[in-house]
Amino acid sequence: MFRNRLLSLALCLAAALSAAAQPAEDGLRSRYPELSAEDLADPAAIAALEDRVNAWFDAESETQRAPHLKALEGTDLRLLEAIVRHGRRYSAPEGPIVGNITLPPRYDPAKPIPILIGFNNLTTGWERDAVLGGFGTMNPWGVEAWVDPRATDEIVRDLWKLSRRVNIDFDRLYATGVSVGGHGTWVAACTRSDAWAAMLPISGSPGRVMVAMGEAYMRNVRHLPVRTVVGAEDTDIAAMANKGFALGKEQKLPIFLDTHDGRGHESFDDLAGDLLTWALKHRRPLYPAELEYYGGADLGHRHYWVEAVKDSVRGRDLIIDTVTGTVKRRIPVFALQIAAGVKDNVVSVRTKQVSSLRVSLSPSMVDFTRDVTVKVNGRVAWKGKPAGSARTLLESSLRRMDRSRTFLWEMEFEVK
């Protein structure tokens, strides 16, 4: 009888331990869908790696990061890449607002949320429908001019800091704005297109891009859906929006235009819910196989997985009017150009006005177990098997302020 009691007690204890471990295991499996049960067999080891990776990202200097990097070198890169992407652990916030992000009512810290950014702030209707639709909303601080091509950089820096406290889905960042905010949404789309999932400019047009910067920059939205809404009675804006739509159609760009008869220059709050539902159908593409990019000076140098490290672009000053004064930005007279593609383990890049180029690669783009050929302006610049490293994985994510789009191999090439 005593033996039977011991056996029953042991079985109860095992069942209790199993029940306690199951939620933790289920939590890991849901957070790391790309990893197997075998990869996640030791939750304590995974937690230790998460702590080490997060400590590396949170360190304030290279000296402080060095011991964490040394400890992480030699880690299975497949496992380390997953932890870079998903390794933050979040607790419930103290209130509905964290920094300048308003959280949806049923925010679950274990689930990354999409963010809607309001250029020139969100109207009450857009804020309400976004929050009810599960978005976090952000009215950025410290942006001097919504039509400034560097506005996206300020926003990404804010989101990067806030991502320590809020589970942000960086593959589902959306922007909208009304009037000057609509113009700013267009500028952000055309100059920093690889940061966004979809854009919703309202009563705004690509006029500042097409007139002040040139039509070429609209081609940067090749992988970014832009849906603009205007009133037919908003004559000047509607005319410019139609011109932008025609150019987009000619270039086969994902640009959509909704023109509403009998309506003017307004925020279209009544359409916010349907427009946000449309936006959520889109996620940011991580590694497009074909790229076409126009940039330089203050209009940027990086596009998805290529970056102009040095260029010969000459610029001119563009004075941007703001509520508090003016902002001066340097705009290229003639943009640098990068056309790039990946097919069958061959990376081909063609450039204009670029003297040094960085190419970043992920196993999602090429097969690292086979030779990869990199061609720059028609000549073979490198051939071999990419040797991924923990240093490249971590440092490229930090430089880009992005833990979602990861790269294991990078190389700079002099352009001839």
Number of separate strands = 19
Sketch the major β-sheet. Answer: 8 strands, mixed
Across the major sheet, the strand order is: 1-2-4-3-5-6-7-8
Structural class: alpha/beta
Give a quick precis of the structure.
Helices cover 34% and strands 27% of the residues.
3D architecture notes:
The protein is an alpha/beta fold and 416 residues long. The chain folds into three domains: 19-86; 97-279, Rossmann fold (3-Layer(aba) Sandwich); 290-414, no CATH class. It contains eleven helices and 19 strands. It has helices at residues 2-31, 43-58, 62-72, 77-86, 124-132, 151-162, 180-191, 207-213, 235-250, 272-279, 390-400, and strands at residues 97-98, 101-102, 113-119, 136-138, 168-178, 198-202, 226-231, 255-260, 290-295, 302-303, 306-311, 315-322, 325-332, 336-343, 346-352, 354-361, 372-376, 379-384, 409-414. Helix 2 runs antiparallel to helix 3 and helix 4 (77-86) packs parallel to helix 11 (390-400). The termini are far apart. Residues 5-23 have low confidence and may be disordered.
Question: Notable features of this structure?
Answer:
416 residues, alpha/beta, Rossmann fold, 3 domains, eight-stranded mixed β-sheet, five-stranded mixed β-sheet, 11 helices, 27% strand, globular
Write the layout of secondary structure elements.
Blueprint lengths: L1 H30 L11 H16 L3 H11 L4 H10 L10 E2 L2 E2 L10 E7 L4 H9 L3 E3 L12 H12 L5 E11 L1 H12 L6 E5 L4 H7 L12 E6 L3 H16 L4 E6 L11 H8 L10 E6 L6 E2 L2 E6 L3 E8 L2 E8 L3 E8 L2 E7 L1 E8 L10 E5 L2 E6 L5 H11 L8 E6 L2
Parallel strand pairs: 3-4, 3-5, 5-6, 6-7, 7-8, 15-17
Antiparallel strand pairs: 1-2, 2-4, 9-14, 10-11, 11-16, 12-13, 14-15, 16-19, 17-18
Helix pairs in contact: 2-3, 4-11
